[in-house]
Amino acid sequence: MKEIQQLLDITKSLKRQYEGKLDFSLDGRLVGDIGEALVSEKFDIELYGKNEHKYDGFHRPTGKKVQIKASMAYYFSYPYNLDLEHFIAVHIEPNGELEVLYNGPGKYINKFLKDRKRKSYRGIWTTISANHLRELNSNLDKAERLPESSI
User: Fold this and answer.
1) What are phi and psi of 67, to 5 degrees?
2) Strand-pair category, 45-47 with 57-59
3) Sign of CA dihedral 44, 48, 54, 56
4) Counting beta carbons within 10 angstroms of the beta carbon of residue 142, is it exposed (0 to 12), middle (13 to 18) or buried (19 or more)?
């Protein structure tokens, strides 16, 4: 099929563009890698690469460490019992647009999950819905959010 070859060519091109940082593999990581690439450009984040487990990169202007989560669904994973320095969750719309669901310190998400006694998956991560992320995001002070890149 022509479309499959185009998809493979596109992922190959993206992999070269983000060499050593993102794979754009078609094994389920593709949405996450697309989200990381889009968010890194939108918020001026330097990506660390594939070997970092806790954070995906850092915000160039402030040096804040950032974990990025992207989905085309409405549930997100958050590291169990961890106050991440900064967390950005985005929903990728079918047209490729990003809806930023949360852009702020992880401590508020961690507190929310603890207060509700949310169970973890093997002590690794907990799920949180897009609606809860939107609600938490709406309570953030503007200074707690990373500004969008002016480039």
Assistant:
1) -105, 135
2) antiparallel
3) positive
4) exposed
Predicted TM-score of the model (pTM) = 0.86
**Torsion angle of the four alpha carbons 77, 48, 138, 28, in this order, in degrees rounded to the nearest 10:** -40
42-91 per-position pLDDT tens digit:
999 999 987 677 999 999 999 999 999 999 888 999 999 999 999 999 99
Q: Token digits for 53?
A: 């487990």
**CA 125, chain centre distance (Å):** 14
Cα gap 130→67, rounded to integer Å: 16
Domains of the chain, start order: 2-144 (3.40.210.10)
Cα dihedral sign, 126-127-131-137: positive
User: CA 70 to CA 91: how far, in whole Å?
Assistant: 6
Residue 34 one-letter amino acid:
I
The pLDDT of residue 51: 65
DSSP 14-52: HHHHTTTT----SSS-HHHHHHHHHHHHHHTEEE--TT-
